[in-house]
């Protein structure tokens, strides 16, 4: 249901209810009022007739007739509809009819001896006032018909309802038009939005927007800015990734052509070795791009059970042990200290530590040692994971740059993708931790990740994970 | 023709050295901008193959510095970014040609030959001397109506002698031209290649200057019969 129709129905229903209540209330008030006025007149007329009879100044028949003329002139004299007569009967106390007015019915108007009563005579309902004069032995009854009374009240209500009946449709129309006007700012926003293409992320104009619509427009504009910047960074990343892949591909193609063209078997073999190297490197780059995408997408790891940091790192160390052996490096992993610590996002942690280790492998000179250690800090609320190598390290002025995507350090020898530390930085940020890079004591690079941890299962025995994978 | 290659990716760098040597070029390869600048200071190159993005700066900066020194050395830029505005930046920055990665080795060699030819002020790609019409693209020459093909190393030596005909080139200078092949330069390699060249060319085309090296014999104006 449209907002306009909804509001319209609510308003029409509310207005109708108010009008109906007003009419009912007016009707009740009018009925009470009319009854009181007419009753007073009945009693006055009865007493007047009785006093005329008591004075003996008039015969009974004439006395009864007095009420008819008087009634006609005293009330609603101008309105023909309300023209009516009071009827009067004079009865002896013994029960004989002594006289009656012209318009009075033939039957006795009331059986009650005095005061107000309601009766039905000749098929008509009457309101009767009986005045008793015990001295004269008569009862004077003055009455008017109930039909007349209802007619009177009905006329008043009609006079009230009739104009309302004419005004209500106009009011309904006005409500409908007003709603259209009132909802116009929303309509404008809706029109602007529906006329845009899906890729149009420019902000909506908000200078003339109503104050109620302003938050909506601001919210939409904020959302569109975020979507636009996310899309832009995605586009930049894709473009960068494509360009970065072109260099290893170019190396592959050139070496393949050399292998095809060279008449010299030694040159051919050398080119094939180079091709393998380039394939390995391209493979690593593709894996890093996928890592980056995984970290960026912040994959929910619902199916992965949070385990201890140490056991996750042991898996990473196991994966990389053969690579360390190939490179002639000693990989020392000391994971005993903090085996009680928990980590809630093992995938991100694994990606971060693996990239740190691979970086260390790339930088470390042949035969040197790469160390992975971890220990709880801040009373066990955080865990520090450190990777240390004996490579050239990162110059202080480059530390801030190397975590940017596709930035390679001066010492990097052009073998990396420039993504490793960017991935580590992003993953650690997603884990709520921080990455620090600095010179290690005695040379080389010390990379430290400090992560918040779930509470540890203290006291649980874990296997000793201290390993030393020497070449 | 000695070419300086500045490229940080080691597989590509190695491939460029091997590939250009197959096309008859001698090359020296470095990985960083600083090394490239040092090599250019030392001189002795006929052209440069320059990567756009280097670990310690942009190839464009190196190029700007080279041009600021007034050098007209032919430079071919290699880049992974080959959108039009990158190409414009490269060419306006002083590059003579521009090639996007990944490229074809033969195209690279052809473009190199073209910018070297322009730098030498020749309209024809072929080089003519003393009855020899040498086609660098095919590494073959026509002499006395006979077509001779040369091995890359023979061609490198011949091309070096043809750069400044008549000038004497020492043995070490010629060895330098052969440097860059995977196998080391044997002490007698230059003599071996000169010997093979003499067998393919007319006798007396290459003269030995005792104690100094080799040079091409002066051009003999042939009478029109």
Automatic annotation (TrEMBL), chain B:
The keyword Ion transport does not apply. The modification 4-aspartylphosphate is found at residue 51. The keyword Oxidoreductase does not apply. One of its GO terms (biological process) is regulation of DNA-templated transcription. Keywords: DNA-binding, Phosphoprotein, Transcription, Transcription regulation. It comes from the Bacteria. Signal peptide: none annotated. SUPFAM superfamilies: C-terminal effector domain of the bipartite response regulators, CheY-like. GO terms for cellular component: cytosol; protein-DNA complex. InterPro entries: CheY-like_superfamily, OmpR/PhoB-type_DNA-bd, Sig_transdc_resp-reg_C-effctor, Sig_transdc_resp-reg_receiver, WalR-like, WH-like_DNA-bd_sf. Residues 124-218 form the OmpR/PhoB-type domain. PANTHER family: REGULATOR OF RPOS, TRANSCRIPTIONAL REGULATORY PROTEIN TCTD. This is Response regulator.
